[in-house]
Design a protein that fits this description.
The chain is mainly beta. It contains 4 helices and 20 strands.
């Protein structure tokens, strides 16, 4: 575990010992699930059922000028297909401090889950069993009020993601942003935001290639001094972006936030080629088409532009609430390069009674490799559309006991695979939130 995570967790725990108001809130959640396509594959779907038990505790400390919290969760999931069992751990922490004209916030996240859950948004590739994924993130941020109408916000984020299988490439990802806000009226705010991101994938495993029995290469076979070879690669991407936008509140119930802009990315690839296959083709003066058909020789440094959008519509009524959004940006990936990602979300919540609640939400997404070309490692494998739709019913039995029923539908269409993948899952759960402890000192 990175040392900065341990240091941040230590600060949170040390803060909890200082004078203020304290609270401890435990919880327990048990869910049973049936899924007719657990691996989200186009063919040979795997049907499975299982049970998940999660225990957690939330520790909080509050004072007039600062506060801290630490959220810990342990989850164990067992399926009738044991290859997809997992024991997961999660930690969330935050420290904040306010002063007269500003404030600062420090967050950290530690996730030790499995590819069964993480790859739905990222690669879409769940493989034949669950593998460990570890994610460590730290996010410092601060704001300063320049005047009654102006404010500056700054934030940084550092993230390290590690996998337990060679199919997925480990990576580091860092972001930074600076936002200026101007309030032209009580209802209208304007934003200008500059951002920078840095993505670095670790070296891939050695990829083996064979050049025999490949029809486009048959005329070249007499020239080739090799039949089989291996290569590997890593990548690095730097992105700078600028967005303009605003927030408008029609009323206390309805608001719209919209930002638009563009980013510029430079992608660099490093190929490890111990047999110097690519150099051989360059010396022979072969067309790029043939080079692209041989291993990684077609991977080229590139530049690309991405349109940035961040739109959110919120409406809250007496018993209803609705939220819709659209997001277009770059995102890191375990495929070994940066992705262009577009997502649209919808969420609806309805309070049926004081004890019953209905929740529906949906997600549509589209991914593709940033700055990709047909010559770059068949980067079309990252190009896919995916949809998730979910309906949940929650009922409060007593002050501390809740039951819920949940239906989830997923759809995925990958360019590199013929056909589409669909899955339906039904989940029944019970939640227990005992009375916590409160004290001050």
């Amino acid at each position: 575990m990175p040392q900065w995570i341990l240091a941040t967790a230590g600060l949170v725990l040390a803060s909890l010992a200082m004078a203020a108001e304290y609270s401890v809130d435990p919880r327990l959640h048990i869910v049973t699930e049936h899924n007719d396509n657990l691996r989200m594959t186009e063919r040979n779907q795997l049907s499975a059922h299982g049970t998940s038990a999660e225990a957690g505790v939330l520790l909080r400390r509050r004072s007039e000028v600062d506060g801290q919290e630490l959220d810990l969760r342990l989850r164990s999931t067992q399926y009738n297909r044991s290859d997809f069992d997992s024991d997961d751990q999660f930690a969330r922490g935050a420290l904040h401090r306010n002063w007269r004209r500003g404030g600062a916030l420090l967050r950290f996240n530690v996730d030790r889950d499995s590819t069964r859950d993480s790859e739905i948004i990222d690669t879409g590739d769940i493989l034949h069993k669950s593998y460990r994924r570890e994610r460590y993130q730290i996010e410092p941020s601060a704001h300063y009020i320049l005047s009654l109408r102006q404010r500056i916000d700054a934030s940084l984020s550092a993230e390290a993601v590690r996998y337990g299988h060679e199919r997925y490439m480990d990576y580091d990802y860092g972001t930074g942003s600076l936002t200026w806000t101007w309030s032209s009226s009580e209802r209208l705010n304007w934003f200008v935001q500059g951002s920078y991101t840095h993505y670095k994938s670790k070296q891939s495993r050695d990829l083996g290639f064979s050049v025999l029995n490949t029809p486009p290469l048959l005329p070249l076979l007499p020239l080739l001094p090799f039949e089989e070879f291996s290569q590997s690669y890593s990548s690095r991407s730097r992105t700078a972006g600028l967005q303009l936008g605003g927030e408008y509140r029609w009323s206390e119930q309805l608001s719209l936030t919209a930002m638009a802009g563009q980013s510029r990315t430079r992608n660099r690839y490093r190929i490890k080629d111990p047999m110097e296959v690519c150099s051989f083709f360059e010396q022979q003066g072969l067309p790029e088409l043939y080079q692209g058909l041989i291993g990684l020789c077609g991977m080229e440094d590139s530049r690309g532009n991405t349109r940035l959008w961040n739109v959110t519509l919120d409406w809250t009524g007496q018993r209803h609430s609705f939220q819709g959004g659209f997001l277009s940006q770059t995102q890191p990936s375990a495929d070994g390069y940066l992705l262009e990602s577009r997502r649209a979300t919808l969420g609806w919540r309805y309070e049926l009674t004081e004890r019953a609640r209905l929740i529906a939400d949906g997600l549509w997404g589209r991914n593709k490799a940033q700055g990709s070309s047909p010559l770059q490692l068949g980067a079309h494998r990252s190009e896919r559309d995916y949809v998730t739709a979910r309906v949940r019913y929650q009922h409060k039995l007593t002050e501390h006991w809740f039951v819920e029923a949940d239906y989830r539908y997923r759809y995925m269409d990958r360019r590199a695979v013929r056909g589409t993948a669909e899955s339906s899952a039904l989940m029944l759960g019970i939640r227990y939130t005992p009375q916590g402890w409160r004290w001050s000192r």
